[in-house]
Structures are given as structure tokens and as C-alpha cells.
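Q: I have 381 residues here and want to know how they pack in 3D. Can you give me a structure?
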Amino acid sequence: MPAKDEDILNKVMSHYTVDISGLEEENRILKETVHNLKDELNKFHRTPLLVASIRDMVGENALLRLNNGNEFFVDVSNECKGIVPGDTVLVEQKNLTIVKKIDSSKKFNVEQFVIVEKPSIMWQDVGGLAKQADEIREVVELPLKQPELFRKVGIQPPKGILLYGSPGTGKTLLAKAVANSTNSTFIEIVGSELVQKFIGEGSKMVKEIFDLARERAPSIIFIDEIDAIAAQRIEIGTSGEREVQRTFMQLLAEIDGFKPLDNVKIIGCTNRKDILDPAVIRPGRLDRLIYVPNPNIDGIREIFKIHTRNMKLDAKIDPEKFCKMMEGFSGAEIRASCTEAGYFAIRNNRFKIFEKDFHLAIAKVRNEENTEGKDYLNMFG
């Protein structure tokens, strides 16, 4: 065969060899894609597994507890022979056979329900509540900072306090300020969140909250709307009411379970002190009751000054006049008045706040924007 023809033949064969290699690689990729798609499809047909915890081991079997509180005596597969009480496992839905042990990602499941933070609120951010601040310092701050004083005197400080009063008077601010001053972890929870659907879940949450507080000590547990679980108990009620009472009893047990000089303090908060069960405010529990009222005129001046310190006020504004107009306002309403005044300036493309802005804002907070608000607007043009 001539050399020229041989070269052409070699080129053609080389070309087909490259094509075959490319096709084989493409075929391999397609097979892998098909295999992966089949695996994904099988996942959609696979029966989901339940998450449960091991309560106890009885020989080769296990006493299993589901999240709804039900317990079952079940078999253990050969792959899970090393499980012990307290482990979290996956179980098959039909006969609840344990098929796999899993690691719990969180020690405290309650962390998803509570706000855990180091507050930035300082005492100078709280106005008009000097007397209440002093009481809280005595009960919460002093035992956390100087526990030796109480040991030398030979007395036990209160375990917790109850802040009560109308909405918006600054109860939460007081709690956050004392947490900041003591460099404590602030664990905030709303009482209604402790009311759970399944039996025993509310009690479990309460226990985990106190365990979490002890681990993060020094810490302050702030229970807002505590009347949701601590209302006066009744003899006959629905199953839901009985579950609330179980949760309340667990709360009382946890309060009784730690020493007054532990680095954990409890602050309850309510607008309805009149409906609380006497058991929660008896001596030895939340026995220091602190009333947080609407601010007087001096308190209004302090709060108004706090919320306007970063605002650009017109030189003609007389703060005293507006403070007198806001008599009877809560701290939250004073803050809302300052915020609304800023909005009236923004709507007019201004950065400076004028008298008419505060007049309109105060009228709006009083829900009088249709009467006084229009009069003020006509007055100032």
C-alpha cells in the first residue's frame, strides 16, 4: 500500500478512535445521570421514618417515646444494637422498628422558641422609672454582682420578681436593662408559647428553659404575659386547661428547684395581676411585686428627651408644652409620638421637625387625627 494511502487510513482510524472514546465518556455520564434520577425517584416512593427517643432498654427490645408523648415497646434492628436510653433514633412507621440512630443537632430544642440575647439596653435608655429601677437593682443586680453581701448578712434574696402594669409602660425595658448591667444572658419567652398541643410538651419546654438558663448563667429568664400559664386554677376544665395547669406546676417546681443565690433570676411580666394564681407570687417564688405605672410629668420629660436626642428639632420647639400635652401617655405612646412626628417631616421631604409635626403626631397617637389633627394642620398651614 502506498505511503500516502496508509497515512489517510491512519487518520481515518484515529478519527473514529477519538469519536468512540467521546461516545463512551458521554454514555458513562448519561448512565450516571439515569442512576441518580432513579435514586431521586425512589426517595419519593420511600416511606418516611419517624423521629423518636429511647426511654429505656428491656433486654433486646426498647421502650420508645414519640414526640406526641405516646410510648411503645418495639424491636431493635441488628444495626442499632448499641443504643442506650436518651438516644434519638429513626423508626419505621408501620411497626416502629428502630432502624437507625441519629445525633441530635441541638441539646436544647427550646432554643427555637425563645429569644436568647445579650441586651444592649442600658439604664440611661429607661426614663421615668427610677424607683422601679432601684427595686430591680436590689433584687436582681445586687445578688448577681455581690452575692457575698447576702451571705454575710445571712439573708436569702428573692428568686424572682413580677412586673405588672398597663401595656407599654416599660416593663420589658427594665428587664433588658438589668440583664445588660449584669452582663447576663437574656432568655425571653411569651407565656402563651409554653402552651403546647401535646400532653407533656409544655412541661418539657419549661424544664429545658431552666436547663438552658443554668448552662448560660448568669442569666435572666423573662416570661412575658405570664398570666397565660399562671392564671388561677379551676377544679373542672377542658383537657387543654388541664395541660396548661401541668405546665404551670412544672414552672413552680423549677422555681423551687434552684437556690436564691444561683446565677439565674426570673422576671415575670403581666398586665393582669388580678388573675394570677397566688401560688406563683407567694414568698419564695416571684415574691417581689413591682408596679410599673404610666410616667408622671417628670417621667414624660425624661422619656421625651431620650427619644428626641437624635432628632433635628426646630429651635422654636418648646418640649415642655408637648410634655404637658402627653400627660397620661405610656412610655410606648410617647415614643410613638416622636416616631410619628418624624414621619410627618419625611412626608414633606424635611429632616427637621417642626411644632406642627408634634401636634399632628400627638393627635394621631390619641386617635384624634380627624379632629385635633386637622385643627392643628389649619393652624400651622
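Q: Anything worth noting?
A: The domain at 297-380 is CATH 1.10.8.60 (Helicase, Ruva Protein; domain 3). The two ends are 108 Å apart (CA to CA).
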